[in-house]
Amino acid sequence: MDTALFIEICRENSIPCTAAEAEKLSAFADFLLAENEKYNLTAIRDERAVMLRHLCDSMTLIPYIEKGARVLDIGSGAGFPAVPLAVCRPDLTVTALDATSKKVSFINAAAARLKLSRLTAVSARAEELAHDPAYREAFDIVTARAVSRVPVLAELAAGFIKTGGHLLLMKGENSVTAGEVSDAAPVMRLLGLSHIRTDELTLTDSELSETLSRTVVVIEKVSPTPAAYPRRYSQIIKN
Ligand code: SAH
After folding, report:
1. Does ligand 1 lie within 6 Å of residue 160's CB atom?
2. What is the pLDDT confidence band of residue 45, given thresholds at 50, 70 and 90?
3. Cα(195) to centroid(ligand 1), Å
4. CB–CB of 53/77 below 8 Å?
5. Is 69 touching ligand 1 by the criterion CB < 6 Å?
6. pLDDT in tens, 206-230
7. Binning pLDDT at 50, 70 and 90, where does residue 28 land?
8. Which of 80, 184, 198, 200 has the largest CB neighbor count within 10 A?
9. What is the mean pLDDT of the chain?
């Protein structure tokens, strides 16, 4: 990946990025694009699109996360936002969770190559792992990008978050976020979650005349989640 161009795109979007971080992210993007030829890890195959849509987009979460936080990324896929967060925030302890083991193996291989000792990927279903005592209410921050609708993610995530911690949901274009958030209000109350705010942001690559709208939904865990949640996946998606 063209590191200088990546730094330029970060600058255009007011995303802080040092040369050392850009080198690591560039090595990650090269590894991703190479492995993607063998396994289907991401639909985005163009280097420049990876810069804006995957790397910069993931980096927009950086200011939301307090120093030293324990972070869980649900449905991390090829490592977004988990890997950029681990690269740019070595103070964080990051766990990437995905149901697909080839994606988890890819993230663990990337963590080893990039020497990200505080990044670990785990292969499991969120609704099952959330009942494991080692993971229950163990995270300050849970993130999820492009995984599911807000009510579903609220239930998948709530059990993992410490009281006082936060859930950060990242959504791309065509998201009906306002409606989704209000639809999720009753289930969030049940789960001990409260919607704080929804931030709208834009990512641009002016040379390509590209403008992307993004949303970050910020939810706080205000009280413990009842032990019965999350329910089985078939029940979660029903209502
Ligand atoms: N966050 C990544 C990937 C999004 S695709 C990105 O933004 O690029 C959604 C991912 O969520 C898939 O890799 C899928 O395997 C995973 N996923 C969906 N439901 C899940 C669940 N219940 N538990 C764990 N992983 C899940």
Report:
1. no
2. confident
3. 22
4. no
5. no
6. 988 899 999 999 999 999 999 999 9
7. very high
8. 80
9. 94
Distance CA 199, CA 116 (A): 29
Interval 96-146: pLDDT, tens? 999 999 999 999 999 999 999 999 999 999 999 999 999 999 999 999 999
CA of 207 relative to ligand 1 center, distance in Å: 31
Long-range contacts of 227-236 (CB under 8 A, 24+ apart): 229/130, 229/155, 229/158, 229/159, 229/190, 229/191, 230/126, 230/127, 230/130, 230/131, 230/155, 230/156, 230/158, 230/159, 231/127, 231/155, 232/127, 233/125, 233/127, 236/127, 236/152, 236/155, 236/156
- For each of the domains in the chain, give its residue range(s) and CATH number, in order of start: 60-238 (3.40.50.150)
Q: Give the mean pLDDT of 76-99.
A: 98
Please tell me the residue having the least CA distance from ligand 1 atom 6. 80
Query: How many Cα atoms within 13 Å fall on the side-chain side of residue 149?
Result: 17
Cα 172 from Cα 199, distance rounded (Å): 12
Supply angle C-alpha 197, 198, 200, rounded to 5. Answer: 145
Structure tokens given for 138:
């163990």
Structure token pair of residue 223:
């009280």
- Decide: pTM greater than 0.90: yes
